[in-house]
Amino acid sequence: MTYNSSITDVSEFFLNCFVRSPSWQCWLSLPLSLLFLLAMGANATLLITIRLEASLHEPMYYLLSLLSLLDIVLCLTVIPKVLLIFWFDLRPISFSACFLQMYIMNCFLAMESCTFLVMAYDRYVAICHPLRYPSIITDQFVAKAAIFIVARNALATVPIPILSARLHYCQYNVIENCICANLSVSKLSCNDVTINRLYQFAGGWTLLGSDLILIFLSYSFILRAVLRLKAKGAAAKALSTCGSHFILILFFSTILLVFVFTHVAKKRISPDVPILLNVLHHVIPAALNPIVYGVRTQEIKQGILKLLRKGL
């Protein structure tokens, strides 16, 4: 299939997904599809369990439900299109679909980061102020937190697709990526894209950077409080409670930082590496989140087993 690279008015884009490394498509398609199915199935199971099990109708599990919902949307936004490219070479994507994907990716990744921040605060209150926990972390708190998560990130990321959509695409319509990333799309424009780059950089570091700083600040307070616990086994129990949260947050942040650094050093590595990391960042955390919480949280494990027994 040949794609037009010198037209006067572009009406759609084409995603060049690992065309420089066609063998990647072969060995990536199976693990990527399995990760996608795992992420969808695990998150759906978690949502159903929390919804049907009355003992899990608590603020912490509501936050976990929000995280699962965000993971499902992110997976559905990115992975099916990538798999269609791998299996059927369906590279075209319309203008509206491309900019919608761009918005959802930026918005929901920021929402996920903000959700991790609220969950870190939940653990901070539970460990450092246990007696005040029931009066601070209430259903009303979760509702307000959810409104804040949605409103902050939905409004802050709106300019990203708008700035890209207002550009004039007149020559090249082949995106060197598997997804409609802002910078990959905007660089195809005939216009100056300095504002797009600056807003992406400033917005990303402001939203994700501030969340990350506050998250690690919360866990530093938690660690200090845990080390002061003198009751036998109390420190181990507290660390176990927070362990799953911290592991997932660390993984989410690490893969994001690795992507940034590989993008900066792209002249020294294959250009397909940042693209691969970008795709994996939309599916690996989504697959890990419900598994880690399910394995490390006894209440969720018991809820799933209870539902399975009912089903049988």
UniProtKB/TrEMBL annotation:
SUPFAM superfamilies: Family A G protein-coupled receptor-like. Its main location: membrane. Residues 42-293 form the G-protein coupled receptors family 1 profile domain. InterPro entries: GPCR_Rhodpsn, GPCR_Rhodpsn_7TM, Olfact_rcpt, OR51/52/56-like. It is a multi-pass membrane protein. The keyword ATP-binding does not apply. One of its GO terms (cellular component) is plasma membrane. It is found in: Membrane. GO terms for molecular function: G protein-coupled receptor activity; olfactory receptor activity. It comes from the Eukaryota. The keyword Transmembrane applies. The chain crosses the membrane at residues 28-50, 62-88, 100-121, 141-163, 205-227, 239-261, 273-295. GO terms for biological process: cellular response to lipid. SMART domains: 7TM_GPCR_Srsx. Gene3D superfamilies: Rhodopsin 7-helix transmembrane proteins. Keywords: G-protein coupled receptor, Membrane, Olfaction, Receptor, Sensory transduction, Transducer, Transmembrane, Transmembrane helix. PANTHER family: OLFACTORY RECEPTOR 56A3, OLFACTORY RECEPTOR 56B1-RELATED. This is G-protein coupled receptors family 1 profile domain-containing protein. It comes from Sarcophilus harrisii (Tasmanian devil). The gene is LOC100915763.
